[in-house]
Amino acid sequence: MTEGTSNEHQVQPPSGLGVAMVGHAFMGAVHSQAWRNVHRFFDLPLTPRMVALGGRDAQRVKEAAGRFGWSSVETDWRALIERDDVDLVDICTPGDTHAEIAIAALNAGKHVLCEKPLANTVAEAERMTEAAERARANGVYSMVAFNYRRVPALALARKLVEEGRIGEVRHVRAVYLQDWLADEDAPMTWRLRKEQAGSGALGDIGAHIVDATQFVTGDVLTGVAGFTHTFVPRRPGPGGTEEPVTVDDCAVFTGRFASGAVATFEATRYALGRKNAMRIEINGSRGSLSFDFEAMNDLWFYDAEEPGATAGFRRIVVTEADHPYLKAWWPPGHLLGYEHTFTHEIADLLTAIGTKTAPQPSFADGLRVQRVLAAVERSAAEGTRWEQVDSTT
Ligand SMILES: NC(=O)c1ccc[n+]([C@@H]2O[C@H](COP(=O)([O-])OP(=O)(O)OC[C@H]3O[C@@H](n4cnc5c(N)ncnc54)[C@H](O)[C@@H]3O)[C@@H](O)[C@H]2O)c1
């Protein structure tokens, strides 16, 4: 044996999982970062191998693969699914492509990670869930990428609710506020076309607060009433011609959870000054919790069991080693960011696949969110007994 190649000098990686990803823009970059680094921080039963990146333009997909660390490229997602070295397909494309890619991948025996919202319609989400359940019977797993479940502060919030620290949940108050569409001249994007995005702020960011509140409370929404609005009905499209905006710009709705808890939701991309303010407050019979993604390392906790004179919302800096996911990272107070939520998501997915456990949130969870979105749209379309208020004096 030549020097330097003896077994004692070699590092044995855990068994690998061949990953292919479709789409290489915003989510493609974020997911690539997670696939590249996850096994360097988390102890995992499987190490991802970034074997292939899919995109439609040969030049652009090649550049992206080089930058993000993928070993090869395909210009048709179908070719990715046919490859023997691909065990998992990660879908980072707009909603109109999710159902077709996910169902084909699952039927071919590939695990699937699919970006949210799961689909553009309930019917698509139902077909995806059926395919996921059939595949699961053969040891093939799937997960929908609601990454906010993996914010340590929200995972801690869930734990506190589960432990009864805020008692019985009475109020759930959630908003998701961005402002990137407030400029009326901002150009058209696929996110503003119903046939590609399914819906607007509702499915894009409203889906996150529906999933996150169901996750934190461990409960499900059983009814909603709301309305949507489009502030800017036309936008400059490609080539300078105006194109109609066919989705909502904002959605405002109320809801009721199975437990009886009362909820309010607002999703908008017109809240000037708010960049990614995903805020959740929960009031229970023994205390309250409050979270704002723009300060994502903090969870605010009001414990009503404390003496009135000193009780108050206290800030928990969620960076202690015994907080969810934090053992893998830095010393206390060395803050985490947006990208870590995806690393956590992929760590959980690899652990689930490696231990043959169904990952969460499942496609069935994604379908549940889709049904809430569809119910909001029905309520908005039917005009839920909107009472006029006399405003003449
Ligand atoms: N989890 C989150 O926080 C989060 C944030 C943003 C977007 N998303 C979701 O991620 C998905 C992608 O959004 P994005 O922001 O990355 O969009 P994007 O526009 O930045 O990227 C979309 C990518 O998909 C590619 N694409 C489109 N159609 C394709 C096709 N038929 N075949 C192959 N590639 C195709 C585009 O070329 C591009 O690379 C959407 O479902 C979106 O809702 C999730």
UniProtKB/TrEMBL annotation:
SUPFAM superfamilies: Glyceraldehyde-3-phosphate dehydrogenase-like, C-terminal domain, NAD(P)-binding Rossmann-fold domains. InterPro entries: Gfo/Idh/MocA-like_OxRdtase_N, Gfo/Idh/MocA_oxidrdct_glycsds, GFO_IDH_MocA-like_dom, NAD(P)-bd_dom_sf. The keyword NADP does not apply. The keyword Repeat does not apply. GO terms for molecular function: nucleotide binding; oxidoreductase activity. Residues 18-136 form the Gfo/Idh/MocA-like oxidoreductase N-terminal domain. Keywords: Oxidoreductase. Residues 156-289 form the GFO/IDH/MocA-like oxidoreductase domain. Transmembrane segments: none annotated. This is Predicted dehydrogenase. It comes from Prauserella marina.
